[in-house]
Amino acid sequence: KSPLPTRDAAIDLGVSGPIAGFLVAIPVTAIGLKLSIVVPPSMVPQTEGGVYFGTNLLFELLTRAVLGIPEDYVIFLHPIAMAGWVGLLVTFLNLIPVAQLDGGHVLRAFISERAHRIVTYVTAFVLIGMSYLWSGWFIWGLLVLLIGSAGNPGALDEVSPISKKRITLAILAAIIFILTATPRPIWTT
Q1: Structure confidence at residue 142 (pLDDT)
Q2: Which domain holds residue 126?
Q3: Structural domain tally of the chain?
Q4: DSSP states of the chain as a string?
Q5: pLDDT tier at 171, thresholds 50, 70, 90
């Protein structure tokens, strides 16, 4: 609850949780994929009411590395794979660079409070616009508007330079954000 003393501390705060969650989600996802059932499309019953999980770059890479199957096959995810997928999704959502989310703390270390507020509001409206892909983005956009109104005051010391180690951690967080980005997380038929 106390203010962050330095921009390095803001980056540490912002990257620690997502990196830890990411490192746990990778093996959980890989184990779950190994336990999943893979079938050719011809063996999938043509029924209505299925639940489909969206994908991201990392999930695709893990699927190819662990299962090594042709693209047209259908994967019935094991519950452990679903848990890993959820872990990757939560990591992505937490790294959205807005307001008080972890990604917001990292971005705020690099830009002014005013610029951060603009990024937060623009992102909120982009998320609302993305609700045509997944209706949940509408809710996320509203939440970002709500928590964004409180702002992100940043560190007490915004003059001292950011260390190279923290810049590297911020780049790593951005790479994780890109790898876990899931534009359409879940849908049903």
Answers
A1: 96
A2: 4-188
A3: 1
A4: -PPEEEHHHHHHHHHHHHHHHHHHHHHHHHHHHHHSEEE-GGGS---S--EEE---HHHHHHHHHHT---TT-EEE--HHHHHHHHHHHHHHHHTS-STTSHHHHHHHHHS-HHHHHHHHHHHHHHHHHGGGT-THHHHHHHHHHHHHTT----EEE-SSPPPHHHHHHHHHHHHHHHHH--SS-EEE-
A5: very high
